[in-house]
């Protein structure tokens, strides 16, 4: 079983990012970049699949700046076998990323492609769905359980939906995006970190893919989220209703 995992570096979710003075970007200098948490879950799942089925390969791929090498190495330190960096300068939207990933899928011919359900930097939740559409492959999004059936020819997955869990079956090859409850990613061990330094990371130039990378989505401006106002504890329901009516004026 060959599993391709797409990972995106994102600013550490525990750090506060600031909007640039001109409002056109966010300031990422001195912000630690980490593997998007949902992508870490995807890497973990790929490792469990490979090891559970007693063989195969886990290939991790990222699209973007060569500065993503440390995040690829993190996935390799967790246990992925090799990495691919599709090097591209400038802003890429989800469509461009999916088109580049499609080229990698064409090249690598994996049995399964795992992606995070969303990248927590811009919360787009697009790339997995677009990739599946471009490939014409079955897809399952928001997946919290994967089971191999029919001797590994198909998977049965649980999807987290607003109405509860949905279980569906998919033939392979397929695209799956991971949700939070799928697993708890391991930490890289020291030997894993040392081994990762020597693992192969193939760098390919996005320009060579012959794909139109012009963004279809343009970010007009960034704005810092408004700070929350302090809360207030009220004595009872009657006071709450009075405040909502007389002060907040949200009740008639
Ligand atoms: P998004 O649609 O941007 O929220 O991202 C969903 C998932 O697509 C991420 O969790 C990654 O698995 C994958 N992805 C998004 N952007 C990239 C990228 N630049 N390189 C590799 N994978 C990506």
Outline:
This protein is of the alpha/beta class. It contains six helices and 13 strands.
Descriptive terms for the model:
252 residues; alpha/beta; Rossmann fold; nine-stranded mixed sheet; 13 strands; 28% strand; globular; binds adenosine monophosphate
Describe the biggest sheet? 9 strands, mixed
- Flag low-confidence runs: none
Broad shape: globular
Instruction: Output the CATH homologous superfamily.
Output: HUPs
What is the number of domains? 1
Query: Strand share of the residues?
Result: 25-35%
Q: Any idea what the radius of gyration is?
A: 21 Å
Q: Structural class, judged by helices and strands?
A: alpha/beta
> Count of DSSP helices?
6
Q: SSE string, helix = H, strand = E?
A: EEEEEHEHEHEHEEEEHEH
Tell me the strand order in the biggest sheet: 11-10-9-12-8-1-6-7-13
CATH level 1 class label: Alpha Beta
CATH fold annotation: Rossmann fold
Oligomeric assembly:
single chain
Name the CATH architecture. 3-Layer(aba) Sandwich
N- to C-terminal distance:
62 Å
Number of strands: 13
Overall mean confidence score, pLDDT: 95
Ligand list: adenosine monophosphate
């Amino acid at each position: 079983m060959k599993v391709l995992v797409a990972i995106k570096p994102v600013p550490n979710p525990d750090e506060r990012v600031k909007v640039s003075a001109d409002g056109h970007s966010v300031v990422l200098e001195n912000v630690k970049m980490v593997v998007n948490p949902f992508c870490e879950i995807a890497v973990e799942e790929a490792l469990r699949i490979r090891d559970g089925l007693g063989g195969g390969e886990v290939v991790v791929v990222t699209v973007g700046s060569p500065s993503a090498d440390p995040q690829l190495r993190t996935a390799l330190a967790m246990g992925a076998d090799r990495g691919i960096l599709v090097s591209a300068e400038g802003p890429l939207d989800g469509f461009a990323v999916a088109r580049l990933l499609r080229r990698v899928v064409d090249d690598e011919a994996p049995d399964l492609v795992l992606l995070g359900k969303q990248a927590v930097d811009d919360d787009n939740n697009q790339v997995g769905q677009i990739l599946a559409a471009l490939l014409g492959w079955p897809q399952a999004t928001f997946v919290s359980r994967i089971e191999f059936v029919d001797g590994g020819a198909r998977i049965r997955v649980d999807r987290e939906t607003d109405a509860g869990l949905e279980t569906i079956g998919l033939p392979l090859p397929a695209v799956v995006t991971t949700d939070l409850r799928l697993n708890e990613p391991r930490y890289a061990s020291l030997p894993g970190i040392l081994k990762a330094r020597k693992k192969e990371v193939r760098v390919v130039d996005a320009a060579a893919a012959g794909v139109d990378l012009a963004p279809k989505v343009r970010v007009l401006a960034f704005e810092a989220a408004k700070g929350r106002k302090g809360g207030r504890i009220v004595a009872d329901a009657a006071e709450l209703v009075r405040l909502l009516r007389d002060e907040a004026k949200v009740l008639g």
